[in-house]
Design goal:
Blueprint: H1 2-19, E1 50-53, E2 57-61, E3 67-75, E4 82-89, E5 100-101, E6 126-130, E7 133-136, E8 144-147, E9 153-159, E10 176-185, E11 189-191, E12 195-202, E13 208-214, E14 220-225, E15 234-242, E16 251-258, E17 271-274, E18 294-303, E19 313-315, E20 319-322, E21 327-330, E22 339-344, E23 356-363, E24 380-381, E25 392-395, E26 403-412, E27 417-418, E28 425-428
Parallel strand pairs: 2-12
Antiparallel strand pairs: 1-3, 3-9, 4-5, 4-10, 6-9, 7-8, 10-11, 10-12, 13-14, 14-17, 15-16, 15-18, 18-19, 18-20, 21-22, 22-25, 23-24, 23-26, 26-27, 26-28
């Protein structure tokens, strides 16, 4: 009788010892709509359920995608009845309701992330991407997809909304927070702690890859950019400034709020030819290109998906395009008191009549145009200007047997911007 009593005590002791082995955390006491935040600092033992991401921080440029994929490793202890619960928050505050929770559906739950209202409700925001998954309520608005731990790996992707601008000026923008845990149910419900990934959603700083002079047909500048070709939620603005110190500093917008939908050569965000053609821009509103000028171009990218005030923007560095200077020749040869001069090369026939002219000047000093070819020291105006692109001029009233140094420059009447003087050319009167 006594031996049976000892045997019962021994069996009871072994049973209780076995029950203390770690199997994960039970959520049987959880009664909230969304699972509460759990401790993520514990280190799993070999006998614990486990899940962790390959990368804890991710960066997704807005012009690349509106989805981000999370992959990682997991340990399900051979409990094949498992699923991964995922929640996504617009920001780094996990005390609010997530805008994605696959325990509710694959859809975006709220528009708090800046996902367009047109995509709600019911717009899909969650996908299983690796391994196997479970689907519940298939075909219904509440369809749910759950990744599973399969061969020690998992993968899923979620939809991101707008760039999360930090409400505190000067502070880094907020990040999306993705948290997830592995749940098993083989007689006993057990969960891992939450693992977490933060995602920095941002714009790529736009880039003008080249700004080259075009001298065929109309003089101009060809602007090539790296604008995102497939994201129509980014709008672009191209601006031009005259950067020569003697000219106006007005900023002119060549296009605004343009997408990369168009792919016409010379008339798209990816390639823009600034050459005074009316089909490209209207000369009446945007002063055209003149010779001998340094033009600075900047490209601005704007997040058109942003719905909470001033949208995030990024501006490229300035890229210059220098149009070549004209040249002066003499034909016919000089006569007594007269020099017949003409301007050749690098002029712009694309400028509309009445919007540009040329200025002739001369002096007996060869240095009157200045070191940078934009000075007016000793400038004596020629008698031929302004006559709207007079490519030839006969200058009378000159002294005999005298060296005269002529130069010419192009001027835009709309903003009074003048290009650099041509190199001086010598005319000696007989």
């Amino acid at each position: 009788m006594k031996s049976n009593h000892y045997f019962f005590i021994l069996v009871t002791f072994l049973f209780l010892s076995g029950c203390t082995q770690p199997i994960g955390k039970s959520l049987l006491s959880s009664g909230s709509e969304f699972d509460a935040i759990e401790d993520t600092t514990s280190v799993p033992n070999d006998g614990d359920l486990d899940i962790k991401p390959d990368n804890q921080t991710l960066t997704v440029n807005m012009d690349d995608s509106d989805r981000v994929e999370v992959t990682g490793t997991c340990k399900d202890l051979d409990r094949k009845n498992n699923r991964i619960l995922v929640e996504v928050f617009p920001g780094e505050n996990e005390t609010v309701n997530p805008y994605i929770s696959n325990s509710l559906s694959d859809a975006c739950v709220t528009a708090d992330s800046g996902i367009p209202v047109a995509a709600l409700p019911g717009g899909r925001c969650f996908w299983v991407t690796k391994g196997v998954g479970l689907i519940e309520e298939a075909g219904l608005p509440t369809e749910k997809s759950f990744p599973q731990c399969h061969n020690g790996r998992f993968g899923f992707s979620v939809k991101l909304g707008a760039i999360l601008v930090n409400p505190v000026p000067g502070q880094p923008n907020l990040k999306y927070t993705i948290r997830f845990k592995l749940r098993t149910l083989d007689g006993l419900l057990a969960d891992t702690p939450f693992s977490k990934v933060t995602v920095n959603r941002n714009l790529t700083t736009p880039l003008i890859t080249s700004a080259t002079v075009v001298t065929t047909a109309n003089l101009g500048c060809n602007i090539i950019t790296n604008a995102a070709r497939f994201n129509q939620n980014i709008l672009y603005r191209l601006q031009r400034t005259n950067t020569d110190i003697t000219n106006t500093t007005n900023v002119y917008t060549l296009y605004n709020a343009e997408t990369t939908l168009g792919i016409i050569s010379g008339d798209s965000v990816s390639e823009w030819r600034d050459d005074n053609f009316a089909t490209t821009h209207t000369p009446a509103s945007v002063p055209g290109i003149v010779s001998g000028m340094t033009y600075g171009y900047t490209l601005t990218a704007i997040d058109n998906n942003f719905i909470y005030g001033v949208p995030p923007t990024l501006v490229s560095t300035v890229v210059n395009c220098v149009t070549p200077q004209p040249v002066v020749v003499f034909n016919p040869p000089a006569t007594a008191g007269t020099c017949a001069v003409s301007m050749q090369g690098n002029t712009n026939p694309g400028l509309a009549s009445g919007t540009a002219d040329v200025e002739w000047g001369y002096n007996t000093s060869p240095n009157w145009i200045g070191v940078n070819a934009d000075a007016n020291v000793g400038f004596i105006p020629g008698t031929c200007n302004p006559l709207f692109l007079p490519y030839a001029c006969t200058q009378a009233g000159l002294l005999a047997n005298t060296n005269y140094f002529f130069a010419v420059r192009e001027r835009n009447i709309l903003d009074n911007a003048r290009g650099k003087w041509s190199p001086v050319a010598l005319c000696k009167t007989p």
